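Bumping my old thread because nobody answered last time. Still need a sequence for this structure:
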């Protein structure tokens, strides 16, 4: 066998490969701004079902390390997120943040998107976020003083001080806020009521970055085979009962928090209290079922549009009825949270206390009838709107409503008359387009002799839909009367809306509290139905009998759990095994469980400790990319170049079958080069491969732990070998002497003559490999060095341990283990 080159050669090969991929895949597209459709691939990959109007303004300070300011204004949810990111020349963090936000429009300075000389950042946004419409706005709009004025005018009074502290020195983010707000005013002709807009600064360091390709290949937000399938991590965890809770869960899964004390620990405490107090948990779930999407309703209320007319007033009445229903539901959640003791649940309960919601509800009930509520049926909702305002406030309004009642009675009497005159069972129906219409069964009705008085006839399978001229006239009179009621309600409603806009800030906080408790109760739902445990957060990854969360639910008791262990001493895990032995499932489980742990959910295991991870990367799929004119190997190298450029010691990477898309020699060389580079980063790497020689060479490197997915080879009927997968991770490399690939081919049914020929070739190659093995003494020396390095790492970790009482016993066991392993090496 050809001798493998040394580490220096591998590093040189890696550098050449990275340089080639970087230069061959950065060709820019035309840079003329254009309108783009909102049907790109990114939202579906991220599992987003709702569409939001998000206007994003970006500005950059060009330099060796570019600084990018971002202001994202969500017009659907009434919130603004400011960020200022110190990025690299590839703008990785900024592009990732924009991809997760799925903006409908991205606004640049005119100089950045010049057709003659566009900026690199602008070209990257055009190429990597094609679903967003790209625009530019005047340079004068990007003003720091204007941005601060918007904060002082639009943010709730209690939030202005903390926001100013957070954005101090964030010049570019503040300028972007000014540009975004002026762009919205100029393009959409809308503004926000004072002190009603949620504005927050979000540091990029406080959240984990999960690469988009990792999200897709790990099936975090969406199943790869079917977009509608719930067999993904989001589908597994999403037992939320409100749209607000589902949004918070999605946002947390896209960007899990990295602050243990501020977020993760408090969620663990709240979830543990929920699952141990079953009565409180069920009461919370019951209370959550009553809530509409109040967050969107409040946003529509605070947005000031220059529109008038019946439709605008109807919409405002709808919003008030929804807010009234929302406020009437909050006390139920407050009572459900009464037994809570954990800090997070107590804080949520305090935000939902009656002192916050009852005064606002009483103000609404001064104008709106107490028994009027929001209804989903078009007719019911129309009637609720007509009688929403209390009687006695306006005499003309009361007269119009009396006319409305009488017209409804006349229409129902007319319906009975039609049934009697034409001897049909005409039932009266209603929709927003036709208003009242008749549904008549076709049984006994001659379709050729339908009375001429029936107009607008729509034949269906078992009935017809129709109207009469008299009914159309009555509908018109009813419509005129309804419009009069709405317009006479306008003056009263307008004053109420103005009052609600001044009180909207605490209601938004209540919405956020409900969304958070909904997400935690969703975790509680799956924790109580599955055998999940509370993780610990330490510097070590240690999982006992952990299970792949999605397959665990699908396979129930058939799934084989596995152990995981990763420290500074063992940070590169080289996983070998037979085909179909479960290598991919084994390494993917780590990333999915890490995400679950960092969003505050319990995990499927007997015992679990996790470190805080800041980046997750994955290189899994073997698909080519026709649009980018890249083969599967080209895609693989491009993604690995991206990982190598951005990975650090706070990252976790999942690498599956690297180098299998090219020749065995080149694939082995590239896999070795990249493996050495990944080991040097200090990141937690889970590397599945069929290159057994790669595992054997890397076994001598500090930080490497070889694992394999075990299997049994037995002799079946007729003396034919049979391969049985155990799906259990075991130390060491897979025993390739059993030729598991050939055994699998035999099991599938390949002709015996081909199998015999393959075994002959494999045995010949094995004999040649054994003849080229290293001498026994040099082999022992390598293992002695590795044993000493492992001892050094263990002693260093023991020195940093806070548990000094257990230290003597641990050192004694360490000594005994060292002597035993050294004896084994000498006896080889």
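Sorry it took so long. Here it is:
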């Amino acid at each position: 066998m050809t001798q493998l080159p040394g580490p220096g050669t591998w590093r040189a090969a890696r550098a050449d490969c990275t340089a080639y991929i970087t230069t061959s895949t950065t060709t820019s597209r035309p840079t003329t701004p254009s309108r783009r459709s909102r049907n790109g691939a990114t939202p579906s990959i991220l599992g987003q079902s709702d569409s939001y109007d998000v206007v994003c303004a970006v500005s950059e300070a060009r330099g060796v390390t570019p600084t990018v300011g971002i202001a994202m204004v969500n017009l659907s949810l009434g919130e603004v997120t400011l960020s200022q990111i110190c990025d690299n020349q590839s703008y990785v963090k900024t592009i990732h943040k924009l991809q997760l936000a799925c903006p409908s429009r991205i606004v640049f300075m005119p100089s950045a998107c010049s057709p003659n000389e566009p900026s690199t950042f602008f070209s990257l946004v055009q190429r990597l976020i094609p679903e967003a419409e790209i625009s530019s706005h005047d340079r004068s709009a990007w003003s720091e003083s204007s941005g601060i004025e918007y904060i002082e005018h639009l943010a709730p009074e209690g939030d202005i001080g903390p926001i100013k502290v957070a954005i101090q020195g964030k010049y570019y983010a503040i300028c972007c806020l000014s540009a975004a707000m002026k762009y919205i005013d100029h393009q959409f002709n809308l503004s926000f009521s004072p002190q009603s807009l949620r504005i927050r600064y979000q540091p990029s360091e406080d959240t984990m970055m999960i690469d988009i390709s990792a999200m897709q290949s790990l099936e975090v937000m969406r199943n790869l085979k079917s977009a509608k399938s719930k067999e993904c991590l989001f589908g597994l965890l999403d037992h939320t009962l409100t749209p607000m809770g589902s949004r918070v869960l999605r946002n947390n899964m896209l960007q899990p928090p990295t602050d243990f004390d501020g977020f993760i620990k408090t969620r663990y405490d709240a979830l543990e209290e929920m699952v141990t107090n079953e009565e409180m948990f069920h009461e919370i779930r019951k209370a959550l079922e009553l809530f509409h999407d109040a967050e969107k309703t409040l946003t529509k209320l605070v947005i000031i549009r220059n529109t008038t007319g019946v439709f605008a007033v109807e919409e405002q009445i709808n919003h008030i009825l929804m807010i009234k229903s929302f406020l009437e539901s909050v006390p139920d959640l407050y009572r459900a949270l009464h037994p809570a003791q954990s800090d997070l649940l107590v804080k949520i309960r305090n935000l939902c206390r009656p002192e916050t919601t009852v005064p606002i509800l009483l103000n609404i009930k001064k104008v709106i009838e107490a028994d009027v509520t929001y209804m989903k049926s078009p007719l019911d909702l129309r009637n609720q709107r007509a009688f929403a305002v209390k009687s006695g406030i306006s005499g003309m309004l009361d007269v119009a409503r009396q006319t409305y009642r009488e017209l409804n009675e006349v229409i129902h009497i007319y319906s009975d008359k039609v049934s009697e005159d034409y001897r049909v069972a005409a039932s009266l129906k209603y929709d927003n387009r036709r208003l009242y219409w008749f549904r008549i069964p076709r049984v006994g009705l001659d379709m050729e002799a339908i009375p001429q008085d029936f107009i607008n006839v729509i034949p269906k399978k078992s009935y017809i839909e129709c109207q009469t001229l008299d009914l159309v006239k009555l509908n018109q009179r009813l419509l005129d009367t309804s419009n009069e009621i709405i317009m006479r309600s306008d003056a009263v409603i307008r004053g109420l809306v103005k009052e609600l806009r001044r009180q909207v800030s605490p209601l938004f906080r209540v919405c956020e509290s409900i969304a958070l408790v909904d997400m935690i109760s969703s975790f509680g739902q799956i924790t109580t139905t599955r055998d999940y445990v509370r993780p610990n957060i330490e510097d070590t990854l240690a999982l006992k009998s952990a299970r792949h969360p999605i397959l665990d639910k699908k396979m129930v008791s058939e799934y084989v759990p596995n152990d995981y262990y990763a420290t500074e001493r063992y940070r590169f895990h080289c996983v070998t095994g037979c085909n179909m032995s479960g290598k991919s499932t084994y390494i993917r489980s780590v990333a999915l469980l890490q995400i679950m742990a960092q969003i505050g959910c319990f995990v499927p295991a007997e015992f679990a400790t996790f470190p805080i991870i800041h980046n997750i990367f994955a290189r899994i799929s073997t698909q080519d990319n026709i649009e980018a004119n890249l083969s599967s190997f080209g895609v693989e190298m491009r993604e690995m170049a991206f990982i190598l450029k951005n990975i650090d010691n706070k990252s976790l990477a999942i690498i599956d079958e690297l180098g299998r898309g090219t020749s065995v020699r080149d694939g082995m060389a590239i896999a070795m080069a990249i493996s050495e580079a990944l080991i040097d980063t200090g990141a937690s790497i889970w590397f599945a491969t069929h290159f057994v020689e790669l595992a054997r060479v890397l076994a001598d490197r500090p930080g490497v732990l070889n694992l394999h997915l075990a299997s049994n080879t037995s002799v079946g009927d007729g003396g034919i070998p049979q391969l049985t997968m155990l799906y259990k991770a075991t130390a060491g490399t897979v025993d390739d002497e059993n030729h598991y690939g050939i055994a699998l081919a035999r099991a599938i049914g390949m002709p015996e003559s081909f199998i015999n020929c393959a075994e002959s070739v494999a045995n010949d190659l094995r004999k040649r490999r054994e003849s080229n093995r290293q001498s026994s003494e040099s082999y022992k020396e390598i293992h002695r060095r590795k044993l000493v390095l492992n001892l050094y790492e263990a002693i260093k970790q023991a020195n940093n341990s806070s548990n000094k009482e257990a230290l003597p016993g641990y050192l004694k066991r360490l000594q005994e283990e060292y002597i035993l392993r050294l004896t084994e090496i000498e006896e080889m």
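DSSP finds 29 helices and 23 strands in the chain. Let me know if any region looks off to you.
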